[in-house]
Please model this.
Amino acid sequence: MAITLADPSGLPTIPVYRQVAIATGAKLVFVAGQVAWDADGITVGEGDLAAQVEQCYLNVGTALAEAGGSFDDVAKLTVYVVDWTPDKMPILLEGIERAAGKLGVTPMAPATLIGVAALDVPDHLVEVEATAVLD
Model:
């Protein structure tokens, strides 16, 4: 595996993610920000943050598979959430858990979570982008 995740001593250990991703592979994959569109471009889960997070993660999984990878190869996830407040974290994690269950992978929380005023279309509540490294 090209990615090793670590929590160095001197930095806090947070259960849902690791502080450092060490990449040793040769192929970089940059997945464009994925929103809650299905394959036909229809928004999934209008008004439902957990459903949209789930769809975004499924879309990232599809993009990674196209490159020959999976979430095991992800060095960094960035998640943009409209009108983010910390009380939305359980809903975000619910969507991640549901997607991880469907994908058969360990749930991966974002390395970076950014609150934004809006995304590309008003119905989209979240966008997820990934950087992966493959051997």
